[in-house]
C-alpha cells in the first residue's frame, strides 16, 4: 500500500479518535489581549489570573497573552472583542469615542470619594441593580472590573498651583474630568493611556491626570517635570471580558471557574495598583520630577465644579432614556452616609 495513503489513513483515524474520545488537557485554547505590558500592575494581575484559571481548570484551559495592544486597542476594545479579534481582552469602555454611556459617564458621579473600595462596592451594587450596564456591552461577557487609586495632575512645563494655571492646557483625562477642566479653561483629551506617552513627548499634550504608579509603569517621569497633588477621585468600570460566542461555547463547569474568579481578578488588579503607588513616586523622585501640594482652598473650588457637571451629565442621560439622575442620587447618597 502507498506510504502516503497509509499516513493519511492514520491521521484520519487519530483525528476521529480525538473527536470521539474524552476531553484532553488544553481542551480550550484562548487568546488574551491587553494594551498593557506584563510589567504594568494590570499586566501582572493578568498573569496571576491566567495561571489561576489554567490551574483551576486542571489545564483544560490554556490562555496565550498578547501584550502591548498587539490585537486589540483599549479605545475600541469592546467592539473588537465582540467581533472576535481576541477571545478575552482588557477593555476600557470609559475611553470609547461614543456609546457605552453608563460605563463612560457614571464614573464622574463618584467625585469626592477617598476610598477606592467604597467606590467599587457602590458601583458593583449599581451593576447588579441596573441590567443596562451589562446590556450596553452586548456581545461580551464581563470577567473583571477596575477601580483606581486617586489620580493627580502631571504637567510638562510648570507646576499647578492655582486654577488659572489650567488656562489653555491640553490634558489627557478620563471623561469624568473633562467638564471640570473646561470650567477653568483647559481641554480634556480622552485618549487611551497607551497613546499618552508619545503625545506628552511630542508636546501634543501639556499634561495628564494619572496616579503615582504611572510615573514608572508608563514611564511618564521621562516626559513630565511636575506632579501636582490635585486629587481626582476615580470611578469603577468593566475592564476584562470574553467574546460572547466564545463564552457560550464553554461548558458550564469551565464557565463557573471564570465566574468564580471575577472578584479575584478585580481585587488583584486593585492590590497590585496600590502597591505600585509608592514605587512610582520614588521613581519619579529619582528622575527629578518635582512634587508639590495644592492649597486646600484651590482643591475645594476645583471639586465644586464636578457637582454641576455631574448633574448636567445625569440629565443628558435621562433625556436618552437612561436612569442618570437616579444613579447619581444613589452614588451621592452613599458618599454622604
Structural description of this entry:
The chain folds into 2 domains: 21-147 and 235-276, D-Maltodextrin-Binding Protein, domain 2 (3-Layer(aba) Sandwich), CATH 3.40.190.170; 151-234 and 277-328, D-Maltodextrin-Binding Protein, domain 2, CATH 3.40.190.170. With 337 residues, the protein is of the alpha/beta class. It has helices at residues 3-20, 41-56, 77-82, 101-105, 116-129, 132-135, 175-183, 196-202, 214-217, 244-249, 252-260, 262-286, 296-319, 324-336, and strands spanning 28-33, 61-66, 88-90, 140-147, 151-155, 170-172, 187-189, 207-210, 226-232, 236-243, 290-293. The chain is globular, with a radius of gyration of 23 Å. It is built from 14 helices and 11 strands. The model is unreliable at 1-24 (pLDDT under 50). The relative contact order is 0.15.
Amino acid at each position: 500500500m502507498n506510504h502516503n495513503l497509509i499516513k493519511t489513513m492514520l491521521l484520519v483515524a487519530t483525528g476521529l479518535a480525538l473527536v470521539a474520545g474524552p476531553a484532553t488537557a488544553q481542551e480550550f485554547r484562548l487568546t488574551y489581549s491587553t494594551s498593557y505590558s506584563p510589567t504594568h500592575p494590570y499586566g501582572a494581575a493578568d498573569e496571576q489570573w491566567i495561571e489561576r484559571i489554567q490551574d483551576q481548570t486542571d489545564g483544560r484551559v490554556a490562555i496565550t497573552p498578547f501584550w502591548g495592544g498587539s490585537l486589540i486597542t483599549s479605545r475600541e476594545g469592546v467592539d473588537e472583542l465582540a467581533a472576535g479579534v481576541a477571545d478575552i481582552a482588557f477593555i476600557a469602555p470609559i475611553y470609547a469615542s461614543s456609546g457605552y454611556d453608563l460605563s463612560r459617564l457614571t464614573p464622574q458621579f463618584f467625585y469626592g470619594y477617598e476610598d477606592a473600595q467604597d467606590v467599587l462596592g457602590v458601583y458593583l451594587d449599581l451593576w447588579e441593580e441596573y441590567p443596562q450596564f451589562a446590556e450596553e456591552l452586548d456581545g461580551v461577557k464581563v470577567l473583571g472590573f477596575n477601580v483606581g487609586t486617586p489620580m493627580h495632575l502631571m504637567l510638562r512645563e510648570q507646576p499647578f498651583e492655582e486654577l488659572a494655571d489650567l488656562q489653555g492646557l491640553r490634558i489627557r483625562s478620563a471623561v469624568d474630568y473633562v467638564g471640570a477642566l473646561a470650567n477653568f479653561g483647559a481641554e480634556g483629551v480622552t485618549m487611551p493611556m497607551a497613546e499618552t506617552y508619545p503625545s506628552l513627548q511630542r508636546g501634543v499634550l501639556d499634561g495628564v491626570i494619572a496616579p503615582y504608579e504611572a510615573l514608572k509603569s508608563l514611564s511618564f517621569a521621562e516626559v513630565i517635570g511636575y506632579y501636582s497633588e490635585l486629587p481626582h477621585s476615580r470611578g469603577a468600570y468593566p475592564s476584562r471580558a470574553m467574546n460572547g460566542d466564545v463564552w457560550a461555547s464553554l461548558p458550564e463547569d469551565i464557565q463557573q471557574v471564570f465566574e468564580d474568579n471575577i472578584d479575584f481578578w478585580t481585587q488583584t488588579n486593585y492590590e497590585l495598583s496600590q502597591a505600585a503607588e509608592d514605587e512610582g513616586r520614588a521613581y519619579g523622585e529619582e528622575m527629578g520630577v518635582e512634587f508639590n501640594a495644592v492649597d486646600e482652598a484651590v482643591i475645594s473650588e476645583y471639586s465644586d465644579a464636578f457637582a454641576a457637571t455631574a448633574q448636567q451629565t445625569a440629565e443628558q442621560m435621562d433625556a436618552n432614556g437612561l436612569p442618570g439622575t437616579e444613579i447619581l442620587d444613589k452614588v451621592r447618597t452613599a458618599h454622604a452616609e
